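Thread: "does anyone have the structure for this chain?"

Original post by V.I.:
We have the sequence but no experimental structure in hand. Need at least a predicted one for the grant figures.
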Amino acid sequence: MRRFFSILAILALFFACPMQAQKVGLVLSGGGAKGLTHVGVIHALEDNGIPIDYITGTSIGAVVGSLYAIGYSPEEMMEFFTSPEFAKYYTGTIDEDNIYYIKKNDPTPEFFNVRTHIRGDSLNFVTSLPTHLINPVYLNLITMEMFCAPVAACEGNFDKLFVPFRCVASNVYAKKPVVFNHGDLATAVKASMAFPFVFKPVDVEGDLVFDGGIYNNFPVDVMTEDFNPDFIVGSNVSQVEERPDPDDIVSQISTLIRNRSQQELPDSNSILLRFDLSNEVGLLSFNKAWQLHDLGYEATCQAIEKIKKHVARSVNVDTLNEKRREWRSALPPVVFRNIFVRGTKSNQRRYLTNEIRPAGHTFFTLDDFRRGYFRLMSDNTITEIRPTVIYRPHDKTFDIDLDVSMDESLMLMLGGAFSTSSINQIYYGIYYNHLGRSSLELQLDGQVGHIYNNVQFMTRVGVPTEVPMSFRMLASYSTIDYHRQDYLFVSSATAAALNRETEAFVKLKCALPFRTQQKAEIGIGYGHIRDRYVPGATIDLNNPVYDSNTYDLLGGSLFFGKNSLNSPWYATRGQSQYLLAQIFTGRNTYAPGFWGSVSEGENVLSQHKSRISWLQILFKDQRYMPLPGKFALGTYFEGFFSSRDFAQTFTATMMQTNFFAPTPTMTFVYNPYFRADKYVAAGLVPIYKLSNVFQLRLEGYVFTPLRPILQAGDNTAVYGPYFGRIGHIAELSVVGHFSTVVASAYLHESSSPINPWTAGITVGWQLWGNRFIER
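Reply from O.Q.:
Generated one for you, tokens below.
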């Protein structure tokens, strides 16, 4: 009998012992990329059979915790955190496959702009600073895609997720934490991780909500109050006494906003895993994902025996994974039915809906939405789309609610290019966009300079058909004064080319998407071009005698191309490739022998009129590939063919012949040596990235006309021998990209007999406006 009572006493003590805890809660702190340590903690707990019955988290702890709560295994979480998709999540970069080139405007030499928002009858000038560093375009999409089905399965109740879950955000207006226990999980997670000035704050019931770490970075109290588990495991990667880095604005903001009071875990039924990573990992150092995972895994494994003293219940990993598969297989398929749009007018809602829902379809899928989402985000009027989903249990479909922010504004633009040579340009412009049943853009801009002067007008209308289309109308007037160039090592008298080109035209273009990141564009137009020039090799600068050629042309064009370069000049990544075919027909009026001091009409000795027609085709391919370390390599290829006959004189022919200008220093330069009617050219561009701003470039190109065009003794143009000239260009430059401005110091050398060496400094963008004969 005594033995019997002894056994009962032992059993009573056994069941009363703290090691018999039945429910385990996991608390995850905020801390940016350091929070990937939490994944290693979870992985070690699972591998050692420790159950996780509840989970609470703040900021990155909310991200990790939410993934676990919807049935992600630690392996799947690491696969996500190391994926290119997640890199877009925290950088906001839109990859090439999702850029709808059809909706992008041509680059301009703009430095900065001032926007005026149009509200009713008033104009409000806006010069505000950006509120966040990271574009939320991917964050809004990915969180919706990941969480919409689990939210439907749990009916918006976070207690019904695979693992019951809570996350914390901060209402800075009310100065209190916000605990999310129901509703839209994507909104809750985005709010919890909305680190000020890095991610955009989230609107929750009319209040702006920020990162939960402002008021509660380690939500132990939420765990005890909402779940009251028998045992708590805490993983804390934030440091109360972490000192800010004087050169890191993000670390300064983090120190400023983080709540310095840290909640403590109860001693009797908990264990705290604390990780000091303050000097090793930055807020966005997600490239160290596996290093952080392993740190969390190893530290947790070392604490497993302590945990098992309190937690006798064990969960087999295979059994847990099977439950995950069952839970996730029961999630409803995501099929959308209705689209609700907020923040827009009725005609704008129609435009947005038509871009997303395939024509004639009652239902649409996540893939349909993703395509429409990126089409809309490529639009110059829409700044953000915040999607949330509503489940319809009666027919097992989803409705989607789109909260849209738009920027309908009048924008004033200023920029240009300034250099140590005479090629100095001032760019000006005014731009307006509007979204109705279609998208509308109006732009009036131009350049004023020593050599190139231009004014042009563009209007573009985007039509949200099943295959998106856009129509552009262009009107332009420009002059190019090649005779006003000067050079560093050659006097202006010996290098002068007294040539002036005047051009006026109108064009209509229609663009269609050619796959996602490419476009096909057809165009028609009329152009009036007049070239005035001194025809001979000998120039009397006191009283030059000019010839002129006037071209009245009808033209058509067909363009196939794409462009994902990260800069119009001095790119380091991306690709630009296009094929442009143009056909022209019209009249050439040649007027020889008049003096520049009087008008052409008073001194024309004779006029010669002729019909001209020709076809020309241009192909360009430029791409940049990353290499190990800080290196990149660019490749360049260009080929050109024209069936155009020679004009009456050599100079008239060369002024209308295509030119090879692969570097900014050659953009506005007239050099017959690099002009031909049929040629191929290729180049290599090794790049060393000195920093995120500066780069060292060495560019080398070879230019080979099929047959060079030579000047005969009577000043006419004649062909030289096949492949009779092989020219080269070499340029060494140090380049700095400063937000919207580029600066370069360069040394340029070529095989041209005219001005073979140049050197200088340029700030800004040397870019042509629209041309009638596109080159």
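V.I.: this helps a lot. The chain is about 20% helix and 40% strand.
O.Q.: and The CA atoms of residues 38 and 296 lie 6 Å apart.
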